[in-house]
Amino acid sequence: MQQPDLPYVLNRPRHWASGVIFASPHSGHDYPDWFLQGTRLPVPVLRSSEDAFVDRLIAPATDFGAVTLAARIPRCIVDLNRGADEIDPLVVRGVPRHPLNQRTLAGLGVIPRVVSQGRVIHDRPIDRAEADHRIDACWRPYHQALAGLIAQARARFGRAILIDMHSMPHDALSHLQGARPDMVLGNRHGLSAAARISDAVALAVEAQGWRLRRNSPFSGAYICSAYGRPAQNVHVVQLEIDRSLYMNEATITPRADFDDFAARMAQVIGRLATLEADPAGDRIAAE
User: What span, in angstroms and rounded, lies between the C-alpha atoms of 182 and 164?
Assistant: First the structure.
């Protein structure tokens, strides 16, 4: 049974088929009262930074033999796809103004300064103790669980394949020339996953008739860079889905045809859940 105090939900299949993990680090939507009392923004605005309903989209993975890991904690409280040291001095009081990466400068560090459209979350910086508490209570348990799953997959199957699932605002692609992609595959330009794994993800998506673009405008963030080690047979592919395909972005509600979209996504997930599965069984079964 899932422990209620954990910042994530971990679901395992009855039989893990091939060391594949589907994760959703930005779909958390449990907003605690202590956080709501300290923000200037109403919940519907805060939810604009969520990958809303992506946890529902990946849920069928366990039926196909893959593990799912989904955040419960919202991204605007702690961003699980950032490093624990990506701390914005404009958000956390007393943090040195050391060189920052572009994400943190934009207000999208591990403790975010803004949600979508640059709307500021807090009226004033928070204490370092509060930032450390958020990281210790939310970020570290999630990454301990993720690292543990990857280690288990490698020990059992000789490989781990993480499909890191996200959604993107439709307007995030407005600057692109020509037909917009429905999804963007990120693999850090080949650094986080072998070509055969990325190609398999691309083929599964395109088999459903969706347009796919690679590494632009999203090539993968912290999770891809921290865990993707193709030389060690640990592959991480980030997949961004255009939110307008399955939800109303203004009201953050599923579209009327959400179930149809989810069924098509389940076909993608089913195809990938057994990626590189050994028909003779996994290592444990064979030994």
Answer: 16
